[in-house]
């Protein structure tokens, strides 16, 4: 007897729409059981996770701050994935963007450079990220190298580059050799939107990015090309679309957005360049991209939702002494159910009973 | 094995937290931010033991909360602020990288007191505290020089910050009192906690002829490698004898309990004020693990040295101190280097052939 997945003849659009909700529902049920096993009241635990962070302006701001880099990176990645180009190295592009932008901040430190510094830093970061993303893209179209591997490996290169810079040339001269640059000057810092809070201009930029990519995908020919190349490569070839050019384009956009997210994070919440500026944003964004079904608005929601689990998880640690590992289990379970539900839209389980034809061991 | 330990610790904490969390709301709330998991068996583990020791003494007046595995990047400011918002009146942030975030949150919450470990920036409501780990390392240097057959020590270092540099220097100054020609090989792991990298570094050092391994990184990985290869090693932060029963000579352990008890008491009495605390063997912030796997004469020497440092008769950085360049270092403390010189140490003493990275 065998259990196999069989492709469904047709897929239900209604189910496709509500499948994320089913996944979230299943996650909540599973987590309730887990909380009960841990001896916590499931209702109040879920309340701390999902409701409490939404009830005050401080937590809402923190959710937005956490979601900003995730959404920006995921939006870029979604373009790649739609075009069937697999950029796994957004983490590296994020870091290189941060480095490229920080260069200007470090160079202008202590001078009376004007307010042009921050926009210039953002521009440099976007260019840096884009160029860095183009390395695997060019290797792909020129030499056929797997972009999955090359983009991933370049993450470590970026990590070490940043490491080298903050330990050597850019190290804060007054910082006792600690690996960090000095705090950026005010003109090189991303402005905070609400006095006393941490919500910064980056949140607005992320929203603009979401809107711009939604227009690109929905209303322009380029967007149509991206989607066709990914969904039906043969049709795209007949249509005369140049898929290599699209790989370069989507990688460049994706790298630019990751790089921009990098400098916003460094010049915003962190305030200086140091190792460990990203707790894995580039990789978490891959989850966000798929959770949001590669749709700009979906990604915005997914990014906010994932940020909510981080903030809620932290508050659960404080308020209910629920260990951090539970939050990680929680995120893992969520992703598992989303993927499982998605698979079951396209496939169904089928039991196959042993057939006599393949039973003999004669060969 | 490590996983099981972590799980066991977690389980203990969950049940423990349940017991403490249930009681009155008018207790003083004290928060902790940890860089690693409480089960890292090194740096964070010792801070958590300190927290538990404090709870044991003051548990009827105090309630604690900790956030573990808080990265030093953009998340830490939020984590610290979350503790402040949750009503914690005294917050310990236990890694260097939390310095700027702690400072930012301290400015926002003037009525909350903050304590930052190992940093150098302070404020009205933000203290710093650290340990004179170099005192233990001086003793280790003496033991190492006595025990080494090859005359080469292997040193796994984390970051070239003064705390680490002064540890390397203290080790060598101690070792040179026994063997003036002793050599040290240093590998920079560029991490505080990465068992894989630490183990690789230990292997590389042994392959280069080192027969005594010491480290300024937090996991017991190097101890395990030394034990496997039949070499001797020193533990770090915590008692690591179970990872190398035949390998561990001693361990310079961080013992934060007395400090946490004192500071929480001060907070309870309303006498807390911002200061810069730097305690060593004398204040029992630095404690040596039992001296094991060595002959009695070495053990005796180690204990005598420990006693002399504790009583203040012996200063590891006793003048004259000659730098790598052959020049004598200015002696600002009269008979020994003053605290400022140790806290900002950025030179190697004579006898070290390596170069400080980035210098």
Short summary of the structure?
The complex is a heterodimer of chains A (363) and B (359). Chain A has 363 residues and is mainly alpha-helical.
Structural overview:
- Chain A is mainly alpha-helical and 363 residues long.
- Helices cover 69% and strands 3% of the residues of chain A.
- Chain A has a domain at 69-306.
- Chain A has helices at 13-37, 42-51, 57-82, 90-107, 117-143, 147-167, 201-219, 221-231, 233-238, 243-270, 281-291, 296-320, 324-346, and strands at 2-7, 347-352.
- In chain A, strands 1-2 form a two-stranded antiparallel ribbon.
- In chain B, the strands form 2 sheets. In chain B, strands 2-1-3-4-5-11 form a 6-stranded parallel β-sheet, with helices on both faces. Chain B has a 6-stranded mixed β-sheet with strand order 7-6-8-9-10-12, sandwiched between helices.
- The longest helix of chain B has 20 residues, at 2-21.
- The A-B interface holds A 38-39, 58, 62, 65-66, 163, 167-168, 171, 176-179, 183, 196, 198, 265, 268-272, 274, 276-279, 311, 314-315, 317-321, 323-325 and B 10, 13-14, 17-18, 21, 31, 37, 65-69, 71-75, 77-79, 82-83, 85-86, 96-97, 100, 104, 108, 120, 159-162, 165, 190, 343-344, 346, 356-358.
What keywords describe this structure?
heterodimer; A: 363 residues; mainly alpha; two-stranded antiparallel ribbon; 13 helices; 2 strands; disordered C terminus; B: 359 residues; alpha/beta; six-stranded parallel sheet; 12 strands
What shape does the CA trace of chain A take?
globular
| Share of residues in strands of chain B | 15-25%
> Poorly predicted ranges of chain A (pLDDT <50, ≥5 residues)?
359-363
The pair of chains with the biggest contact is:
A-B, 39 and 43 residues
Distance separating the two termini of chain B: 40 Å
- Please, how many helices of chain B? 11
Q: Which structural class fits the helix and strand makeup of chain B?
A: alpha/beta
Mean pLDDT across the residues of chain A is: 90
Tell me the series of helices and strands of chain B, N- to C-terminal: HEHEHEHEEHEHEHEHEEHEEHH
């Amino acid at each position: 007897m065998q259990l196999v997945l069989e492709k469904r003849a047709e897929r239900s659009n209604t189910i496709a729409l509500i499948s994320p909700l089913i996944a979230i529902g299943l996650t909540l049920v599973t987590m309730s059981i887990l909380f009960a096993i841990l001896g916590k009241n499931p209702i109040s635990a879920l309340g701390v996770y999902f409701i409490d962070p939404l009830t005050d302006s401080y937590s809402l701001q923190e959710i937005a701050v956490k979601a900003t880099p995730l959404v920006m990176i995921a939006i870029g990645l979604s373009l790649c994935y739609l075009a069937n180009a697999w950029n796994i190295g957004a983490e590296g592009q994020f870091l290189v963007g941060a480095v490229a932008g920080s260069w200007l901040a470090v160079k202008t430190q202590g001078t009376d450079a004007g307010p042009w510094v921050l926009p210039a830093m953002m521009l440099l970061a976007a260019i840096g990220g884009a160029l860095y993303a183009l390395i695997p893209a060019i290797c792909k179209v020129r030499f056929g190298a797997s972009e999955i591997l090359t983009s991933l490996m370049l993450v470590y290169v970026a990590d070490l580059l940043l490491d080298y810079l903050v330990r050597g040339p850019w190290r804060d001269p007054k910082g006792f050799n600690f690996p960090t640059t000095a705090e950026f000057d005010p003109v090189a810092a991303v402005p905070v939107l609400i006095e006393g809070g941490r919500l910064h201009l980056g949140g607005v930029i992320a929203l603009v990015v979401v809107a711009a990519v939604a227009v690109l995908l929905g209303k322009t020919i380029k967007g149509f090309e991206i989607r066709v190349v990914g969904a039906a490569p043969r049709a795209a070839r007949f249509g005369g679309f140049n898929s290599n050019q699209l790989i370069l384009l989507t990688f460049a956009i994706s790298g630019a957005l990751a790089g921009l997210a990098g400098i916003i994070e460094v010049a915003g919440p962190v305030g200086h360049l140091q190792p460990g500026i990203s707790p894995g944003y580039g990789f978490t964004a891959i989850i966000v991209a798929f959770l949001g079904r590669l749709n700009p608005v979906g990604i915005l929601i997914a990014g906010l939702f994932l940020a909510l689990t981080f903030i809620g998880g932290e508050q659960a640690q404080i308020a209910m002494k629920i260990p951090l590992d539970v939050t990680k289990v929680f995120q893992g379970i969520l992703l598992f159910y989303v993927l499982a539900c998605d698979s079951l839209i396209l496939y169904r389980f089928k039991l196959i009973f042993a057939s006599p034809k393949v039973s003999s061991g004669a060969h | 094995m490590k996983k099981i330990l972590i799980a066991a610790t977690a389980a203990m904490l969950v049940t423990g937290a349940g017991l403490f969390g249930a009681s009155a709301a008018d207790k003083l709330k004290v928060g902790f931010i940890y860089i690693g998991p409480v089960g890292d068996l090194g740096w964070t583990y010792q801070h958590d033991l300190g927290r538990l020791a404090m709870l044991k003494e003051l548990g009827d007046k105090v309630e604690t909360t900790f956030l573990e595995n808080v990265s030093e990047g953009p998340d830490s400011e939020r984590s610290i602020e979350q503790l402040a918002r949750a009503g914690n009146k005294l917050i310990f942030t236990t890694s260097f990288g939390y310095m700027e975030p702690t400072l930012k949150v301290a400015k926002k919450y003037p009525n909350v007191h903050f304590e930052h470990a190992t940093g150098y920036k302070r404020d009205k409501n933000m203290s710093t505290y650290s340990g004179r780990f170099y005192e233990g390392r001086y003793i280790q240097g003496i033991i190492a020089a006595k025990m080494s057959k090859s005359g080469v020590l292997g040193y796994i270092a984390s970051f070239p910050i003064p705390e680490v540099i002064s540890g390397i220097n203290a080790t060598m100054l101690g070792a040179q009192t026994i063997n003036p020609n002793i050599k040290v090989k240093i590998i920079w792991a560029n991490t505080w906690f990465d068992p894989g990298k630490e183990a690789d570094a230990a292997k590389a050092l042994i392959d280069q002829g080192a027969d005594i391994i010491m480290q300024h990184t937090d996991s017991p990985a190097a101890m395990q490698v030394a034990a496997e290869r039949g070499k001797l090693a020193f533990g770090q932060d915590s008692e690591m004898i179970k990872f190398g029963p035949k390998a561990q000579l001693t361990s310079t352990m961080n013992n934060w309990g007395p400090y946490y008890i004192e500071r929480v008491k001060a907070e309870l009495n309303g006498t807390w004020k911002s200061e810069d605390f730097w305690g060593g063997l004398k204040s029992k912030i630095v404690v040596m693990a039992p001296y094991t796997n060595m002959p009695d004469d070495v053990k005796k020497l180690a204990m005598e040295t420990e006693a002399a440092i504790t009583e203040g008769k012996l200063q590891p950085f006793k003048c004259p101190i000659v730098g790598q360049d052959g020049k004598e270092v200015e002696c600002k403390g009269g008979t020994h280097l003053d605290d400022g010189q140790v806290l900002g140490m950025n030179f190697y003493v004579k006898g070290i052939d390596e170069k400080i990275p980035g210098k």
